[in-house]
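Quick one before lunch.
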Amino acid sequence: MVDIIGERQEILVRTLRENGASLVGFGDVSAVGTELTRGYPVAISLGVKYDEKIVDNCHIDEEAFHNHLQELKIPVRRLISIAGDLLSGWGYQYESLPLSTMIESDKQLREIKAFPHKTAATCAGLGWIGKCALLVTPEYGPRISLGTMLTDAGFITAEPITRDRCGECSLCVEACPYGAIHNVNWKRGVERTKLFDAYLCNAKRLEYVPKIGRKHSCGLCLQACRVGKK
Ligand code: B12
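Model of the cobalamin complex:
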């Protein structure tokens, strides 16, 4: 008997890969229990890797890095649309999550109710949460832009990653100009505040608004991470 769901999953992965996805994974998010995941037990987590040269130069050309982060939303959105067409063609329901939200203030950061792409990605076995509070993948480190789709399609899910592989490494801790990274190892259940002061990171980068007309993109934590570097 033909395993239809397995066959569809293969088609989906192949199509996404052919269209530029650097990583694709499937995670069981049924236990995460938010409004959004109700009715959608499976998360499709996908990522497009950053350009290495742009990241390597982000300390000298922050503007190029900033533009790169914005531009990467285009291929990620395209992949989501391609996957969406396949899923709906097969009769499955899905919901795609906003890629990111421009956080312009402390209040906005406090109130954001986004389903974290990083949660979907660890559930899908794509990587772990680094000391820097970003998803770190073995292939590309944290230098990957994430997208997530929640679906009722019963795809086979991966073994989740539930603890970090950062060990004693503290390169991101040392690289952060604001001291926002606390040198704490993650395992499932460790909250972001234990790892990283998101408010400090946000506030310090917002201080650039009068000078450059927008929030500074920094990027030094993800530049410093050795994981996935050739
Ligand atoms: C708010 C936000 C910020 C805030 C807070 C950052 C943070 N680390 O949370 C600020 C403004 C500081 C920020 C900065 C940046 N951000 Co930002 N940001 C977001 C946003 C919009 C929401 C994140 C959020 O608040 N989640 C809620 C909190 C509580 O969860 P969380 O911190 O995301 O992660 C926790 C859970 O995932 C949990 N978890 C992990 N696995 C599991 C499994 C289970 C079962 C459970 C229950 C929980 C769980 O562990 C994590 C730590 O506690 C996401 C987009 C999105 N919707 O995910 C992008 C996102 C996290 N940002 C991203 C990026 C690229 C950046 C910057 C590099 C951008 C820049 N330079 O301009 C910096 C990096 C700074 C840093 N070290 O984080 C990327 C990260 C990609 C990656 N590889 O991880 C995302 C995913 C956007 C995207 N679509 O790619 N960002």
